[in-house]
Amino acid sequence: MSSFSAHAFALKDLPSPEEYNKRKVALISGITGQDGSYLTELLLSKGYQVHGIIRRSSSFNTGRLHHLYEDQHERPGKFKLHYGDLSDSTNLVYIIAQVQPSEIYNLGAQSHVKVSFEMAEYTGDVDGLGTLRLLDAVRTCGLENHVRFYQASTSELYGKVVETPQSETTPFYPRSPYGCAKLYAYWIVVNYREAYGFYACNGILFNHESPRRGRTFVTRKISRAAADIALGKQACLYLGNLDAKRDWGHARDYVEGMWLMLQQSQPEDFVLATGETHPVREFVQRSFEAVGIEIEWSGSGVDEQGVDKKTGNVVVKVDPQYFRPAEVDLLLGNPAKAERLLGWKRKTDFPALVKEMVEADLQASKSMVENQN
Ligand code: NDP
Ligand code: GDR
């Protein structure tokens, strides 16, 4: 046992790490988010008992988990939510001591890059120090050799383009307070792995989307607007930088990769990506095509407009308020290591992702119209 161990509240009479790991008890921070909901579905389907940390909110914040929560009445003891926050160390120790998880997925974060410029200190506290707090809570409970830990690292670590495609060996150059906070989290995970023998992995995930994506991220903003404009509920979509390129996959495929990372004999860091990159403009083009609107582009930079070829209406306009103080121009990942060692491969391609998101928003928007009538 390390002389630096912080076993102030160490749990007693633990089984060996091998026996402990067979228990299949997962704890997820950020369970109410996009990835949290898909990961919960996956883990429940694999027979895990799933615990999630949720924040107290004055409004309803468990919409993405509603179907699972309903279901838990049929499967008592399989799914439980705990109030907590990554800024509250005592609470994290308490939850871990109570749950005694065999796997922890740290998905909780202020995850919006643009917002991180406005809330830089908060983002640093939650996304950076929050990761340290969770790791230290595991140590405080004396579970560092028992728990397997997944950290939601990000392609935002690469930031300014140094090389493409970006892989596990590409140097980092973050371009936002969010990226900088996640850089701290990345390295503290590596450090605790090396210092205390933690089974801890960084999943360096490129952008992944779905119909459950938050509405202020660009893909969902576009898919919703395409649906609403097609149904005559919205006139125009305002966007920022249309030239930024992203490597977009489906969240459902990526949570499978998270789980695989914690099932290996040795902890390692992995990139999950599709190996393709597309500009924001293409996401717009394809989304509007999916609802029967063909866009013609005019102007450039902030003067850019997207005109509906049939009606001549301007359906897309650039608004400088959505530009960022520093931008990540190009992300393109190389998932070769994950494919080779984890057997992971994305199943959903780019056209299918756009189609699924637009169809889901069209459906949701139509049913709102029907409910109003
Ligand atoms: P979301 O924004 O959808 O979800 C973030 C989750 O974190 C929510 O459950 C949110 O709770 C929770 N959260 C926010 N602040 C705190 C806090 N102070 N304490 C505890 N929980 C908090 O993100 P995604 O599901 O898309 O992403 C999951 C993780 O993966 C994040 O860490 C993100 O940074 C990272 N990531 C995401 C990628 C993507 O493309 N989606 C790519 C690479 C990394 P609430 O619902 O109450 O707001
Ligand atoms: P990103 O996702 O910053 O890559 O972070 P986002 O969808 O916010 O932006 C992608 C690109 O689109 C450009 N863009 C706009 N973005 C938003 N949100 N709104 C707009 O109106 C708009 N117009 C153009 C952006 O400038 C950017 O270039 C996501 C998050 O999920 C992070 O948590 C995660 O770590 C990374 O992906 C990988």
UniProtKB/TrEMBL annotation:
Keywords: Lyase. Its EC number is 4.2.1.47. The keyword Lyase applies. GO terms for molecular function: GDP-mannose 4,6-dehydratase activity. It comes from the Eukaryota. Its cofactor is NADP(+). One of its GO terms (biological process) is 'de novo' GDP-L-fucose biosynthetic process. Residues 27-357 form the NAD(P)-binding domain. It holds the Pfam family GDP_Man_Dehyd. It is an enzyme of class 4 (lyase). Belongs to the NAD(P)-dependent epimerase/dehydratase family. GDP-mannose 4,6-dehydratase subfamily. HAMAP family: GDP_Man_dehydratase. NCBIfam families: gmd. This is GDP-mannose 4,6-dehydratase. It comes from Mycena chlorophos (Agaric fungus).
